[in-house]
Amino acid sequence: MDGFESFGSGSFCPVLVAPSVTEFLVKENKSDRRHVAKIGQILEKLSVYGPLHLNNTEQFKHEGKFPTGNVRGGDVSVYVVKAFQLRVYGGLVRRNGKSMFVCIEAAKKKKNRADQQQLKRVARIIGELQ
To answer: Can you give the pLDDT of all 130 residues of the chain as single tens digits?
Structure first.
C-alpha cells in the first residue's frame, strides 16, 4: 500500500505501518527503547502466528467495532498493541483476497481508557483502505 512501510511479512499476514506511526516510534525509542522494542516484538508475533497465538491479551487487545463512515457502511474492528504507556492502533484490512494488519495511529497514554475519537478515526481510515 502506498505510503505504508512493511514491518513484518510472516506466514499469518503482513504488518504495514503508517509513516506517522514510524515517526512516533523512532521519537519514543530515544527515551523508551524497551517498550518500543516490545511493540515491535508483538507486531512480529502477530505477523507470524496471528492474534490467537499471542500470549498476553493486554498487549494485543480488541478495542471494539466502529463505523467506517463510508458508503458501504458497516463496522470494522480496531485493535491496540500496548507496551506500558505506548499504544499502536490498527486493524485487519483485506485487499485482493489477502489480509494484512495495518497500524494507523500511535499515542502515549496517561490513562487506561482509550480515546474514543481516535478509535473512530482509525476505523474510518481502515474503511478507506478496504
So the answer is: 778 999 888 899 999 999 999 999 999 999 999 999 999 999 999 999 988 888 777 899 999 999 998 767 789 999 999 999 999 999 999 888 889 999 999 999 877 788 899 999 999 999 998 8
CA atoms within 13 A on the CB side of 90: 27
Domain coverage including residue 33: 5-129
In Å, how far are 49, 91, 106 from 35, measured between CA atoms?
21, 21, 13
Count of structural domains, the chain: 1
Predicted TM-score (pTM) of this structure: 0.92
